Amino acid sequence: MVDVSVLENPITLIDMILKTGQYKMAYKISDDCIACGACEPECPTDSITAGDPIYVIDPETCIDCGACADVCPVDAPKPE
Ligand code: SF4
Ligand code: SF4
């Protein structure tokens, strides 16, 4: 007889992570950034701001969509 609770637990854990947002991924802009600003308006959560000297992503609000990486001319935003 299969213990169904064992099968259900991993699903419950994944569901909890998705709902709470814990352990979610974020993008990070590398030193390759040339501060062109192309990524900033593309971010759906306004997570990108001009830093000094490179642009930076707020990992708390980044939803890991990859839109910034799609427009970056030097492929600076990378998933962490
Ligand atoms: S991955 Fe998406 S949400 Fe995160 S900084 Fe880039 S555009 Fe914004
Ligand atoms: S698009 Fe790329 S090079 Fe331009 S500011 Fe964003 S991360 Fe930097």
Summary, kept brief:
The protein is an alpha+beta fold. The protein has helices at 4-20, 67-71, and strands at residues 27-29, 48-49, 56-57, 77-79.
> What is the helix fraction of residues, given as a range?
25-40%
Domain tally: 1
Low-confidence stretches: none
Order of helices and strands: HEEEHE
Shape-level CATH architecture: 2-Layer Sandwich
- The radius of gyration over CA amounts to 17 Å
CATH topology: Alpha-Beta Plaits
Shape: elongated
Mean pLDDT: 85
Order the strands across the largest sheet as they lie in space.
1-4
Q: Would you state the CATH class?
A: Alpha Beta
Question: Total strand count, please?
Answer: 4
User: Which band does the percent of strand residues land in?
Assistant: 5-15%
Distance between the termini: 42 Å
Largest sheet: 2 strands, antiparallel
Which compounds are bound in this model? iron/sulfur cluster
Secondary-structure content class: alpha+beta
- By DSSP (H or I, 4+ residues per run), the number of helices equals 2
